[in-house]
Amino acid sequence: MIPVNPSAPHPFTTLRQTAPTESDVPVALPTSQKKIAPNFDPIARPYRWMEALTFGRALARCRNHFLPQLANLNSDCNSTIRNALLFGDGDGRFTAALLAASPHLHADAVDLSPAMLRLLTRRAHAAHPTAAARLRTHHADALAFAKNRTSHPAYDLIVTHFFLDCLTQPELDALSRNLAHHAQPQTLWLLSDFRIPTGPMRLPARALVRSLYLAFRLLTGLRITRLPDHAAALTAAGFTRIAQHHSLAGMLTAELWAFTPKAAQPAYTPAMLLPTQRARDAAGPPDPVPNPEPASPSLPEPDPGVFRPDPPAPPQDDRNPACA
Ligand SMILES: C[S@@+](CC[C@H](N)C(=O)[O-])C[C@H]1O[C@@H](n2cnc3c(N)ncnc32)[C@H](O)[C@@H]1O
């Protein structure tokens, strides 16, 4: 295990915000809650290439699967998604794509790794002329952030791509419960992760997941050894799965969940959320949105996570005057 620099303030004891700044009261946690955190700094730079070499474009496609629908919801001032919370987005390819696709959206990105956050910030700022003003980054533990952040209005979108697998089941249960406090009816939770399919791919998937955990243990000190049951955690916290897409022979899942607290259930209408994804049930029938797999893994040349408007729009206030 690679412990986090012991002389530095422990990320679990302080919520520290990185640039761009916005006042956010530091939150001290009891020493008893300290634990050794994984350290993703050493793999922050090569992370994208390691991913491309092992999975080609499969993970990127999984992350971005529902992005067009989210961007549709966000394309004008009537957008239903204005505040997003992204946990563990790593080097920020999805954050950048989301901010570029949704010019009215503001985002809080939370990560334990300063190196990942630096890459995320740079990538997001390059993605859209107003992204710098719309992104706040937080060097913090997601569990502490979700528990202690009280001064923010409810989030409309929560994003956890390949992050929940860094948590134990009790941690994920607690995170989901705490996030429910930051949600309102119709808040969406977008996630992607590895999964163990049934059938002939079950054993290869288990071997793959085991070897990934071993690699991350060696490279980052991550102590987790099994995938948590995110469906159980989210369901118990009041979220309902409204769309799901499996890829890579069933070993990857991209899912959209909506916050449907008991009191709000009679009024909840999934059709309002995702017109192209309605009529999904919790079991997740096949996804009509095509997502073909590549013939062979390929290395992306220009960063696909960085959206470059052509021609680039001049910097401007991101608020549409009609939305005031
Ligand atoms: C496996 S990487 C996933 C990165 C990216 N989301 C992706 O789709 O590839 C996990 C990320 O979560 C961060 N992370 C792990 N545990 C965390 C925690 N408890 N709180 C905040 N960030 C955490 C790591 O620093 C890393 O950037």
What does this structure look like?
The chain is of the alpha/beta class and 324 residues long. It has one domain (41-278): Vaccinia Virus protein VP39 (Rossmann fold), CATH 3.40.50. The protein has helices at 47-55, 58-64, 67-73, 93-101, 114-127, 131-134, 142-148, 169-181, 202-220, 230-236, 270-273, and strands at residues 16-18, 83-87, 106-111, 135-139, 157-161, 188-194, 239-247, 252-259. Strand 5 (157-161), helix 8 (169-181) and strand 6 form a beta-alpha-beta unit. Helix 4 (93-101) runs parallel beside helix 5 (114-127), helix 7 (142-148) packs parallel to helix 8 and helix 8 runs parallel beside helix 10. The termini are far apart. Mean pLDDT is 79; it is low at 1-33, 267-272, 275-301 and 304-324. Bound molecules: S-adenosylmethionine (SAM). The site of S-adenosylmethionine has 19 residues, from strand 3 and helix 7.
Give a brief description.
The protein is an alpha/beta fold and 324 residues long. It contains 11 helices and 8 strands.
Q: Top keywords for this entry?
A:
324 residues; Rossmann fold; alpha/beta; binds S-adenosylmethionine
Number of domains: 1
- What's the helix-strand series? EHHHEHEHHEHEHEHHEEH
- Distance linking N and C termini: 51 Å
Strand order, largest beta sheet: 1-4-3-2-5-6-8-7
CATH architecture: 3-Layer(aba) Sandwich
The total strand number stands at: 8
Regarding CATH, which class?
Answer: Alpha Beta
Helical content class: 25-40%
- How large a portion of the residues is in β-strands, by DSSP E? 5-15%
Quaternary state, please?
Answer: single chain
Q: Are any ligands bound, and if so which? A: S-adenosylmethionine
Round the mean pLDDT to the nearest integer and report it: 79
